[in-house]
Specification:
There is one protein chain. Helix content is about 20%, strand content about 45%. It has about 190 residues and is an alpha+beta fold. The chain has an 8-stranded antiparallel barrel. The protein starts with a helix and ends with a strand.
């Protein structure tokens, strides 16, 4: 009986607070270390200056040599925005970091026993810093459920690319920024 009371309390709490659990943005992104394409949802805080989102990405075997699936946790900060007019906003700078978890037998957190010690570093979790910018179009008034549509671009890298780049500069075996930086773009719909 106690078990059922707990279940009822949990379900009631979720139903009462359902608005809290519904994301206030939906996004689709092309590239950016999260897959060929990734989709997800997230939350905005402090007048859309801070955003947190989750996404699922996929890179097909035909493009990557193996099917790759990712789950990403992205955090970003936009220090200021420029109101172009009553319907358009430009965000010239967004900075952030994404934590990417990659699924599959070729990706691991703990090194499999088939590899010698220190042969490979873990491959499943990556930190991906990025910078970007975006344009927002206010749609409130045109539709009841969508407040903004945002188009964005980002330049990013992955932690070990950045580390290898810095070591390369010290050893005078230069990697270029083109070797480590990626470009992504996408759109978000704000509810």
């Amino acid at each position: 009986m106690k078990k059922y009371i707990y279940i009822i309390l949990i379900v009631t709490t979720v139903v009462i607070n359902a608005k809290i659990y519904v994301p206030d943005q939906f996004s689709v992104q092309y590239a950016g270390n999260t897959g060929f394409v990734s989709i997800g949802g997230g939350y905005n805080f402090f007048n859309k200056k801070i955003a947190t989102s989750f996404s699922y990405g996929y890179l097909p075997k035909s493009l990557g040599g193996v099917n790759i699936r990712t789950f990403s946790f992205k955090n970003s900060y936009t220090p200021w925005q420029i109101n172009i007019n009553e319907n358009y906003i430009f965000k010239p700078l967004t900075i952030g970091i994404t934590i990417i978890y990659t699924f599959g037998e070729n990706f691991f957190i703990k090194r499999p026993s088939r590899y010698p010690d220190d042969y490979y570093r873990q491959t499943a979790i990556r930190l991906a810093p990025f910078v970007g910018s975006s344009f927002l179009h206010k749609t409130k008034g045109y539709t009841d459920s969508i407040n903004f549509i945002e188009f964005y671009t980002e330049l990013g890298t992955i932690d070990y690319y950045l580390r290898d780049y810095l070591y390369s500069a010290l050893d005078e075996q230069y990697l270029t920024l083109n070797d480590i930086v990626n470009f992504s773009f996408g759109f978000r719909i704000y509810f």
